[in-house]
Amino acid sequence: MASIFTRIMQGELPGHFVWEDDRCVAIMTLNPMKPGHLLVIPREEIDHWDDLPAALSAHLMSVSQKLAKALKRAFPCERVGIMIVGLEVPHVHLHLVPIEAMQDIRLEGLPQAEPDALAQAAARIREALV
């Protein structure tokens, strides 16, 4: 069965897209740690990040760096944290989170964001991409 991310990429489920190319997408997460929290996801369904082909892994990191620069412009922050966890969805995804301190990084108990807030955050990041 297709992962939730594949279903979003195929248009079966809604998503707020920030980046799309032939190898990956970036979307806003429904439960952001901080405003601007997004996910970079390969189009190919691969469960474990250490199974990514080297070229795809490098591409994901390159895209993540571009998006991190845009995140800093759109959501001024000390750093953009990056995390790969992979326990809830069996499809590799990189979390990019604008952060000020370590306590900004947490995954549990996060409220679901309003669709309008996600759409506005996605628009700010897209506008900040240079």
UniProtKB/TrEMBL annotation:
Q: Which residues form the active site?
A: H93
Q: Entry's InterPro entries?
A: Histidine_triad_HIT (IPR001310), HIT-like (IPR011146), HIT-like_sf (IPR036265)
Q: Where is this motif: Histidine triad motif?
A: 91-95
One annotated GO molecular function is: catalytic activity
Taxonomic superkingdom? Bacteria
Q: Single Gene Ontology BP term?
A: nucleotide metabolic process
PANTHER family from the xrefs? ADENOSINE 5'-MONOPHOSPHORAMIDASE HNT1, HIT FAMILY PROTEIN 1
Q: Know the name of this protein?
A: HIT family protein
Residue stretches making up the HIT domain:
4-107
